[in-house]
Design brief:
By secondary structure, this protein is an all-alpha fold. It has 5 helices and no strands. The protein is rod-shaped, with a radius of gyration of 69 Å.
Length: about 210
């Protein structure tokens, strides 16, 4: 923003009131802007408040002084620009290093995420396989239990049938013995043929004795 004579005079009055000599450098420092040529030209027209009644005029600033002031301002500006550029380059280099580190960390994180994802998929497949094996084992155990229960029922039935057969055999044995006893009681002492056979046997025994 351009400055006016009034701005320069106001600041010059403040500097003078503080007991210091208003200079183009100090005025610009306080204003924060403005060219040295503009400030110097305004200071040439500035009159100290206490000297207004004396009618004395401010001596003009030598041209050499103005040139040196302008050169000093240019040199300071060049130094400030160089420092700013160096600082900017340093910050840019630091950011490049930081960005490279961030990119490396990002790539490492991506690789780690891929590895974890692959391990997770492998774990899921392993879990599925184990679940399938467990289901098959459960089915086999169930089938084995069913067979065992069927065999147990069959053995129980066979034991029942065997016990019933033994009981039947015992009953039949008792009946057979009872029938044999009855038959033995009803059987005659001997038939006629048996008597003849017995008599013949006795006669043959007697003849052979003589």
């Amino acid at each position: 923003m351009a400055i006016t004579k009034q701005d320069v005079w106001r600041v010059a009055n403040e500097i003078d009131a503080a007991g210091d000599k208003p200079t183009a450098v100090e005025v610009r420092k306080r204003l924060g802007t403005g060219s040295y040529s503009t400030i110097t030209a305004a200071l040439k027209e500035w009159v100290r408040p206490e000297s207004e009644d004396d009618g004395q005029e401010l001596e003009p600033v030598p041209t050499e002084f103005e040139e040196r002031i302008a050169q000093a301002g240019a040199d300071l500006f060049a130094i400030a620009m160089r420092i700013a550029q160096e600082q900017f380059q340093a910050e840019r280099d630091a950011w490049a290093v930081e960005r490279a580190e961030i990119e490396a960390d990002r790539e490492q994180a991506i690789r780690l995420a891929d590895q974890v994802s692959a391990e997770l998929d492998e774990a899921k497949e392993t879990i599925k396989a184990l679940q399938a094996e467990n289901s098959a084992a459960v089915a086999e155990r169930g089938a084995a239990f069913a067979v065992a229960e069927e065999r147990a029922r069959t053995a129980q039935a066979l034991r029942g049938e065997a016990e019933e057969a033994r009981n039947l055999a015992e009953r039949l044995k008792g009946r057979i013995e009872a029938l044999e006893a009855v038959i033995s009681q009803l059987k005659p002492a001997g038939t006629a043929s048996e008597k003849k056979t017995k008599a013949k046997s006795n006669s043959e025994s007697t003849g052979s004795g003589e």
